[in-house]
Amino acid sequence: MKIYILPVPGFLQPQKQAMRYPSHNNDYDAEQDFLIWIKKQKHLLTNNHQEANWHYLPVYWTRWHINHHFAAKGAGLKELKAEVDKVIIDDKKTFTIALFDGGILIDAGDTIVFNAGRTNNKAIDIPLICKPHKKPIFKIEKKYLAAFNGSFETHPVRMEIKKRFENNPEILIGGCLPTIFYKRWFLGKSFNINIMSSYVALCPRGTDCTSFRFFEAMQLGVAPCLISDRDVRPFKKFIPWDEMSYYVSTVDELETLLLNNLDKNEAIQKGEKAAECWKEKLNFQKWCKYVLMELNEL
Asked: Exostosin GT47 domain: which residues (predicted)?
């Protein structure tokens, strides 16, 4: 395989963005990570676009859209499309990496989009990556069947989980961090503890079909459970997700899993495999090779 990196003007790769998410994350995501990785793969690169099997379009879509008011009312899209159209040589040979939940938000023909947090747009799923959480040096004992801390407003399934489980003492359901500084600091520190105190980390979809929490739980060694109408666990052809995670499409399925079918020993084993998989396959730079494997499948 040979890859040609399409030359894009510098302003399509903004150096920073106006907002970080999650809040502990660096201003860095899959879009920058893949570009850094592919530049290291000298044996794959060519300066001749005609001999290349694939053309890589290295636009920083997320930074662009966030810096243009999240593309509200189409902000920035006309300019973006005009510049991208100038760069693409053959859309049938072109691929790109995006984090933004709606993907690239412009019509780029047959360009293949690898999307880390898609909604209903057509894309190939890749992992959400973010700065790792610190783990406590002492062992955390399991206290809960499952736990969730986060906002409830980003998708109805989150409100349904809250209503269904908030009075169950075996399932920890928490809200967003408070605005008072010292309380926010304390509860922010306990986010890791709450996840690690559980057999399963609840990862309901939000604005997009997945959740940073899914991959944060993997890093912390707890089996994540994606609750979403779409199973967007990435690279399914190459990663045996059922060995290290759970997926349910409804809260009814989630209730059956937690209250009737959960094997605690199996959940612990899944968490251990999840941590190993995150470290070896889905961490910074580690996930990038799977993009090429997906392209090979095509």
From this structure: 109-252
